[in-house]
User: Fold this.
Amino acid sequence: MSEANQYEQYDVAVVGAGHAGIEAGVAAARLGCRTAVFTTSADMVGNMPCNPAIGGTAKGHLVREIDALGGQMAKAADATFLQSRMLNKGKGPAVHSLRVQSDRARYHAYMKKLLESTDNLYLKQAEIVAVERDGQGVCAVVTALGARIPVKAVILCTGTFLGGTIHIGEVSFSSGPDGTHASNALVDSLKAIGVSLRRFKTGTPARVNRRSIDFSILERQDGEEPVVPMSFDTTKKLKNQVCCHIAYTNEETHAIIRRNLDRSPLYSGRIDGIGPRYCPSIEDKVVRFSDKKRHQIFVEPCGLDTDEMYIQGMSSSLPEDVQIAMYRSIKGFENVEFIRPAYAIEYECCDPLQLKPTLEFKAIPGLYGAGQFCGTSGYEEAAAQGLMAGINAALRLQGRQPFVLLRSESYIGTLIDDLVTKGVEDPYRMMTSRSEYRLLLRQDNAQVRLMEKGYTIGLVTEKSYKLYKKREAAKEKELSRLRATGIAPSDSLDRLLESRGTSPLAAGTKLAELLKRPQVSYDDLAPFDPGRPALPSMVKEQVEIEIKYEGYIRRQRTEAEHMQKLENKRLPADADYQTIEGLRLEAREKLNKIRPESVGQASRISGVSPADISVLLIWLEKKETERRRSHA
Amino acid sequence: MQGSTIAAIATAPVKSGIGVIRISGPEAVAVAGRVFQCRNKQRRLSEMPGYTVCYGTLSGEDGRLDDGIATVFRAPKSYTGEDVVEFSCHGGVYSLRKILAACFAAGAQPAMAGEFTKRAFLNGKLDLTEAEAVADLIEAEGERALKAALCQKDGALRRKADALADRLKLWCSHLAAVLDFPEEDVEEIDRAALFAGVSALLRDLNALIDTYRRSSPIRNGITVAIVGRPNVGKSSLLNSLSGEECAIVTDIAGTTRDVVSARVELGGLAVTLLDTAGIRETDDVIEAEGVRRSLSACDKADLILAVFDGSVPLGEEDTLLLTELAGRENALCIISKGDRPLQAEKARLREVFSDVLEVSSVTGQGIERLEETLIKRLRLEEFHPEDGMLANERQLACVRNAADCCQRAADALQTGMTLDTVSVELEQALGELYTLSGRRASDSIIDDVFSRFCVGK
Assistant:
């Protein structure tokens, strides 16, 4: 390697500029690290190779949490907003989820500009082909052009680029997403420094030309007004600009698929990668749910400057001619024209059990992973990990305490804990059912849960923090007011209660008590509450939820506090579980492999029993007693 | 979980003079106060300093259970280093269990094997060598407890719990599919059907909980009080059932003045027979106390054998007993001296008792029918351990918690709460049932979502 090729050196190198790489790079740079973000193509920064949408169930929660910690995704989604809906209205605040259609090209442009304009951040188009380590940990990255760049930390956000192979029917070729080239050389380098890799698979549907679809026979799906922004900081009024449509497959579509299954690389055994269960290809759905007469598909616009439409629900790895035939069998799609065919893509990723809760490799100091590289799927899951890896890489270089979020305070914490404690068998998608504390972890209160932390770390701006504090104060004041203010029975109140299907008021009560009834909303009570202050809808929403769900919230908090005690019992990194008397064999092996950071984490490892946890607690206390004794 | 308040029987589960129940944890005194009332009405457990004792009454939902001594220890000066209350009571295993159950109802959790000692260690109350022993103990107990849960009745309980869990899981995963995949055509939840499903589950969980009470005769045996006017042949019956001379038998009425008990096996059950002083109005002070005890023995007993002398017509004292026992469902009528001609008016006895049996302590006639009647009365024939039964307080607590969660889910559905709360409650119920077989709720729900529902884009 010639000295002439040597770039300057960096604190942090981020490999990849997708949704994980962006958050990682911006966080590290804003925390004061000299950060290089490498991408194989600067035209792919913040690309959405799958659906042009941000959020959805549990994913919307993640984006809100990223926002509360000072991350970028929510702001970009609002800035490139096309349409949005709050999903699960009426099913309860724990599962209310915001889903935003974003303009794919503008999202990319927004993120590229963000990287270019962030101080301390250097966007570089270069393929990283090697990561080098020395006795201390990672020490350099090497580009395909031969530059060896000294760095102190590396965050791998390689997405589906790492060892990527695209499959379309009988055709397969080395490739990244959307016609980019795969990053193959890095695979061997990572193996050489001790990273254990595995192969996963995912897929995406075709993009078609809007002008070739007959929308007159499709169901419309409009956005909701007024638009709820994704970011807590967005004050600008957003307007829905496009609408989506719903279409359905039919028996003919399914017959075409069945006739051609032998030409699918998945069924003929040419793909070994494990695909995501939640994101099955259309052929998978037809085979596994053969009794379903039709499958629902969504037609989503990719942007304002294009006629490309994303056909959600029609991911496939069948040959192109079969794809065209099956798409054209759909009502409204008779003359559909493809712009890009559907494909399946296999890629290399790591077993996340190799990672600490900071997303740093246990065995390789300074090396971090985030996003699909860690076995997840989804832009939001990727961004969440990118943010946490970026923060932790910076904190480590600055000698500050690591930043780990708890399951009981965030979906981000739940996501990472699941990854590093349970591992993954197939690409991991966040779902609300993964959180045992989901009545606490709502999208409406992400700021309450996390903003103080983001502010302490240094990613939350003074302005956002002040805005949050103001809202928080207003909320607390309103809660006390509602708990203290009485409401008397009256004919008009009884009429309201009756119309909502609940019993009339027998005697006077507090406003808060009345609001506890599921049938009565905060807005309903406005005519009976003359002293009510004018509040932003965000504050009203939280006040209402905190009162209505008080009992549930209190119970979940108590559970979280119990668990917290076990999380606080830290396990030493150098513990040799083989030698701890009383642990069962399976527990010893699992503990030695996963090396949990706390007894709480250990308790979530499958194969570690409550009796094993007792043994660990005693062993810990014994060590502590010995330590105290030797100091005395 | 440390931080909770736990309770257990601290003495060995054998019949002994005194039994101790220990309650430890931050709420120990409060829990104890709900079960124990000081005899001196001025005193409150909550106001007692450490190392003090108090005499009083222990009671549960069925009323008074026993009298005993409560000893209060204040943290950190106790065995565990936490607040501790110990009840020293009479040593019957059955009554200790009843008191323990009352402690659970008052808010304590069942202590795990070795948990008091574990807490003692964690609070710095034990030294290193003791701690080693505790680790071994917990290990051994943990394995044994797991084995017991898994192997009990060839896994009958596990099969039962799994069957209930499977039904619960269907609802949990349907809820998860609906809540996590709102934009896909997953069939919506029909709240009425869900309510019916949860109510059915709740009934079955309660039936399982009921096996604990109903299997109590099998686990703990039963107590049978023998009552009747003096010299009617109660002690002879006891001796004939036990095959030993437990009670002094004379022709003098009122020979038995205290309650005499004998442990016998009847119909495959361990039965504690209580022979009581004859019931009659008496001026003799000691005997009056005996009569009081006889009647109180009736209160404690699972079954009452009311003995009438068949060789003579019913007398005034018999009438007194008939009045006393009228309305007691658990009383059986025994006509003694069945080897002599029947003089007593059987029809009058039939008015009060549904079972009237003629028994002879001399010939043994009628004893076999008595055994059959006992089994019939305890409804043990309808009880099938192979369908799964709860064998210990820990299993009982799991199923109770599951039932509580289901109850809250049903309430939420009825009051119109949103489905997110219902899903959380049902998932927790599933988690409780899974602790009986060592599985995890959330993973299994998610697996089920993907195998049953066509979701994902």
